[in-house]
Amino acid sequence: MPDPDALALHGTATDDDIRSLIAAEAIASPSGIAETLIQPSSLDLTLSDEGYRLPGSLLPLPGERVADLLRAMALERLDLSRPVCLARGQVYVVRLNERFALPPGVEAYCNGKSSTGRVDVATRVLADGSPRYDRLPAGYRGAVWLELIPRSFHALIVAGVSLNQAIFFRGRQLLTQSELLAEHRRSALAWRDGRPCPEQVVFDGRVVMTADLAREIVGFVAKPTHVPLDLTRSATHSPEDFFEPLPRPRRGYLFLEQGRFYILATAERVVVPRHLAGEMVPYEATAGEFRAHYAGFFDPGWGQIAGRPPGAPAVLEVRPHQDGLIVRHGQPLCAMAYERLSRPCARPYGSCANTYADQDGPRLSKHFAAR
To answer: Could you read off the pLDDT of 342-368 as tens digits, one per residue?
Structure first.
């Protein structure tokens, strides 16, 4: 019998709502869904053993099945029951273990995990008959597939690894400018130098965030290397093999080269209250000459660790596309949109030893040994 709590979802799901969806078999996996995959307001998705190498990206049209497109267009089938090395710059599609039978009106939106974005692996979800990346339409039933493009490094993967995540919602409720401003006035959503940011940080229904070039090491840039990055292992890689640190620029600005991958941090310390979730978005629609993030979800409780100053910097994954990019301290690079949860989250981010809860500036992914 379907769990009535799963059908009554309104707003964006919390971890308890996700458990209800699992209990109702709206989300299922052949080996079950481990509790460790359930985040405060999102679910980590896992790779199956079925993968393909493609000549380029594809997107299904209404009525088309992804599996049929792959059989027609794939260059090679991959068996991920054993570790497989994905070549830099190649396009791959892997079936995810999770299958969906979403209740009427319940949708899902997917995004790469923070650890995936920090190693410059681009991810996008494909669903049968859906000509939109990263979206499962209301009531979706069936398998989903993950497009993977390693951009800076060769990447070693295997079945069971989690590279992306999903949020679930019925009637997604993004805060408007006036609602967001009221939240910021009630309890500051962004801080700088130990003080709440002025109200001007809230603009067009988002909290605008800027580059921090004032610290000793302002970020990292990916290095050319033939060494594969093993995404199945944590805290084992030497940072020096893959990234070069960027010291504070003497001239007050950084020049980011076209096509290279950089990790920076925001000058603002961001807070996500327990009754909200956040998503990093472009601060300006016309600023299309660079990408400032691959992973966008911020769970409730981000930046709220007892005994610590409020807020935590967001890490930016920046890749200039068309031209080089000059970045100065305090320059807007991205923004945070906030949305209402179905209920306040009882198990906020940071309460379960989450990887980046204590980050305080630019930080490499969990795959690297501490510097």
So the answer is: 999 988 887 776 778 778 899 999 999
Beta bridge partners of 6: none
Question: What is the fold, at CATH topology level, of the domain defined by 177-340?
Answer: Deoxyuridine 5'-Triphosphate Nucleotidohydrolase; Chain A (2.70.40)
Evaluate whether 4-170 and 177-340 have a shared fold.
yes
Give per-residue pLDDT as tens, 262-300.
999 999 999 999 999 999 988 776 655 556 665 578 999
Burial class for 297, CB neighbours closer than 10 Å (0-12, 13-18, 19+): buried
Tokens describing residue 193:
């130098």
Three-state secondary structure readout of 67-109: HHHHHHHCCEEEECCCCEEECCCCEEEEEEEEEEECCCCCEEE
Both tokens of residue 254? 């950084």
Residue 217 vs residues 95, 162, 249: alpha-carbon distances, Å: 39, 29, 9
Return d(Cα 102, Cα 108) in angstroms, integer.
9
Q: Among 96, 89, 93, which residue's Cα sits nearest to residue 121?
A: 89
Domain ranges of the chain: 4-170, 177-340
In a 3-state reduction of DSSP, which class is residue 15? helix
Helix (H) or strand (E) holding 334: strand 332-340
Mean pLDDT of 133-156: 97
Is 2's pLDDT higher than 50? Answer: no
Distance from chain centroid for Cα 238: 23
| Cα–Cα distance for residue pair 216/269, rounded to 1 Å | 17
Decide if pLDDT at 21 tops 60.
yes
User: Six-digit token pair at 248?
Assistant: 């504070």
Question: The domain 4-170: what is its CATH number?
Answer: 2.70.40.10
* Phi (first) and psi of residue 134, to 5 degrees: 65, 15
pLDDT at 306 over 80: no
